[in-house]
């Protein structure tokens, strides 16, 4: 019988221990815990929002820099293409001038050189207005 009483006592202690785990806390303790959890959740959300804003701002800056670099390269290359085209047109015009003689040949060469100078100036102007790095 002694064994049965010991087993019963052990079962009773276990029931109390297990039952004590699910014991309701006082309303003030629950309110404090809820407020603490809500505050922590708000802090974590604010931190996540700040992190997200920083990442987006960084990405925006990278995009702006990439766009600026692209515009710069396009402006430089556009100027080079325009100068190369102008050089080709001048060379062609100067070759045609060789068919002339005397003052007419010189006037033809002067006109070809003036057209070239104008085209180069226009190319530089376009670059200046389109190149964000100038």
Can you summarize this structure?
With 134 residues, the protein is mostly helical. The chain is built from 3 helices and no strands.
Mean pLDDT: 90
N-to-C CA distance: 102 Å
Oligomer, anyone?
A: single chain
Strand residues, percent: under 5%
Q: In sequence order, what are the helices and strands, one letter per element?
A: HHH
| Fraction of helical residues | over 70%
Uncertain runs with pLDDT below 50, 5 residues or more? none
The largest sheet, given as strand count, sense and whether it forms a barrel, is: none
> What is the approximate shape?
rod-shaped
Radius of gyration: 43 Å
Number of helical regions: 3
- The number of E-state strands comes to 0
SSE class:
mainly alpha
Can you tag this structure with a few keywords?
about 130 residues; mainly alpha; rod-shaped
Question: Would you mind describing this structure in some detail?
Answer:
With 134 residues, the chain is mostly helical. It has a domain at 59-134. Helices cover 90% and strands 0% of the residues. It has three helices and no strands. The chain has helices at 2-21, 27-97, 102-130. Helix 2 (27-97) runs antiparallel to helix 3 (102-130). The chain is rod-shaped and about 135 Å long.
SSE layout and pairing:
Layout: H1 2-21, H2 27-97, H3 102-130
Helix pairs in contact: 2-3
